[in-house]
Amino acid sequence: MGKDIATLKRLFGEPRLDIVEVFGRKLQFTGKACVLDAFFYPEGKGGTEIVTHVDARRSDGAEVDRASCVEALSRR
Questions:
Q1: Which residue numbers in the chain have pLDDT < 70?
Q2: Can you tell me whether residue 1 is helix, strand or coil?
Q3: Which residues contact 64 (CB under 8 A, 6 or more apart)?
Q4: Distance CA 49, CA 67 (A)
Q5: pTM for the full model?
């Protein structure tokens, strides 16, 4: 939470998906253990986009602990 796009790319590599929306952006990172969706919105008016929410799940859709998913993806 609170990290910018460049930081997440350094931690997890290139995202599987990069979806730009009108007011935000979503990056999706995948690994054997899980799928992590990171949602970015600007910090203040005209500010840098930072992570404001994350979702984590297995490839079959079952929920997983977000911290465990982050740890697994950062070890790749």
A1: 76
A2: coil
A3: 33, 34, 56, 57, 58
A4: 21
A5: 0.89
